[in-house]
Write a structure and sequence with these properties.
Elements: E1 2-6, E2 9-11, E3 17-24, E4 31-38, E5 45-51, E6 57-59, E7 67-72, E8 77-82, E9 91-99, E10 113-114, E11 118-122
């Protein structure tokens, strides 16, 4: 499984960005794709995840109301739409794939495959 994250950039507060995570290789229907972010000096933080098959999704409190996760089956791509961005959203954003067994995986240890990360900087 290979994951390619893209779509980051430098934006002003209040702006929007859409991150993409393109997946290649075999991904089981029992897997989820998650987005994490890591700011300098901080631990990697869960943002949102979506199941590979059924569209079940889950997001962290910090993302609710501003971020939306979705997938495009035809393109094997998962998107993270981020609206009303704030300076505290500045981080490297990673996508990852991991088993979705009973509950949506929400910690880095639950994910097996990782993309390379894309930088998001929110600054005026």
């Amino acid at each position: 499984v290979q994951l390619q994250a893209s779509g980051g950039g430098l934006v002003q507060p209040g702006s929007s960005l859409r991150l993409s995570c393109a997946a290649s290789g075999f991904i089981s229907d029992y897997y989820a794709i998650g987005w994490f972010r890591q700011a300098p000096g901080k631990e990697r933080e869960f943002v949102a995840a979506i199941s590979w098959s059924g569209g079940t999704f889950y997001s962290a409190d910090s993302a609710k109301g501003r971020f939306t996760i979705a997938r495009d089956n035809a393109k094997n791509t998962v998107y993270l739409q981020m609206n009303r961005l704030k300076p505290e959203d500045t981080a490297v954003y990673y996508c990852a794939a991991g088993p979705h067994i009973a509950t949506m995986p929400a910690t880095p240890d639950e994910y097996e495959y990782w993309g390379q990360g894309t930088q998001v900087t929110v600054s005026s």
